[in-house]
Amino acid sequence: MAPQKVQKAVLFTRLVGYAFRMLFSHLQRVASTRLAAWTALSPTLVDASDVKNIVVVGAAFAGYFATKVLANSLPRNGKYRVVVIEPNSHFNFTWVLPRFCIVEGHENKAFIPYTPDFFAQAPDGIVSWVRDRVLTVGKTSVRLQGGEEIPYEFLIIATGSTVPDGLPSRLGVDNKEEGVQLLKGVQAKIRAASHVVVAGGGAAGVELATDAKHQYPDKSVTLVHSRPSVMHRFGPELQAEAMKALERLGVDVILEEKAMPGSADGTSIDLKSGRVINCDCLINCTGQRPASDIIAELSPDSISPTGHIKVKPTLQIADDSLPNIYVCGDVSETHDSNPNSRIAARQAQIAADNIVSVVRGRAKRRTYSPEFGDGVIKLTLGLDSSIMQFWDGKSELLFSSKETDLALMCRGAWSAIGAKPFVDTGVYKGQSLTAHEFLSRDRSDDDVA
């Protein structure tokens, strides 16, 4: 028992040190951003044809924060601009999607408007926003869904991950209005069901199953998981606490089994073993995969067996022929124990800082390595409780808490990306362009020059 107490004390000490490092890093970045603004030079007039694009593909946590770093740190000489390519009308706060598949009346809070205020300290016009989807990446340009191509000098791939069945982990649609309707549809489906089966015992599955049983205690809720324990990627203490919560709420847990979605007929579903269980509502929480297809044609060897994009410590793609391509967030292969928004944002800062270093002619570049503190997870276990885990692979620190807000951390997420909770200002006003409008504007600028 003593060694375990010692390990936990050591872990707590490391956690305090981690918190101070993160605070110092944040203050250092705030100071450097303000210094850059104070010492900004008047933009040098350059021909439109000489302006170089730094293209950021994706504007979830990784892409959005990379854009902010670039916009605030690039030289103010007009030679570079940041072009964000993002198909979604709003930032999707995916962490709350399992909750909003159960709880009604909060759906709009999962869709945070992108706002120019996020780049308030950056020079006007340094960020251009193209609402489209990248299909493939070439050596010097990206090709969009409509066939247009946008050239780049540097590229950041921050495409995240996808799931084949959409909710509860992802939406699979680009518009807020469609997303809200999808959430309401799942809510109605679960509300009308008698026997809910949740496939997958990771975080999304555990959260959805416990929320469903808490909201509807009279319904049958079954969680089917293929591993020997739920939350299998995390420490044994968190696994045990999750299992206790499932049992306390009355969720039937079936381990080392797999639900066969194709067998669901509206009344039952088959398990891989041949067992048949009642099911008039199946929620599939499996199948998440990195969205790495856009690089497959250009650099197939850079995609790992797991579907992630291999990267160097500098977060450049692991392909020496493509030194100007960087990768960050869930799509990158960085061997983090629990990929999440904190990790995505830290990787984004490093990738963006390295591009700025190259632009400024500096040789030194930052490198990324996993930090145990970044892997913290907050797991909801029913509508009114949650547990937070810090785990270094040897020992765990668990912190239980009561949840009083059904919308969880939505308010903080809105504030973190520069939006006023919960005021929807719509699509990125005045900046959001189609690819055709963006390229046409460039051609017009060339004619003027």
UniProtKB/TrEMBL annotation:
| GO cellular component terms listed in the entry, alphabetical order | cytoplasm
InterPro entries per record: FAD/NAD-bd_sf, FAD/NAD-binding_dom
Taxonomically, the superkingdom here is: Eukaryota
SUPFAM superfamilies for this protein: FAD/NAD(P)-binding domain
According to the entry, every stretch annotated as the FAD/NAD(P)-binding domain falls at 53-345
| Pfam families per UniProt | Pyr_redox_2 (PF07992)
A molecular function GO annotation: electron-transferring-flavoprotein dehydrogenase activity
Instruction: Please identify the protein, giving its name as recorded.
Output: FAD/NAD(P)-binding domain-containing protein
Organism, scientific name = Lasiosphaeria hispida
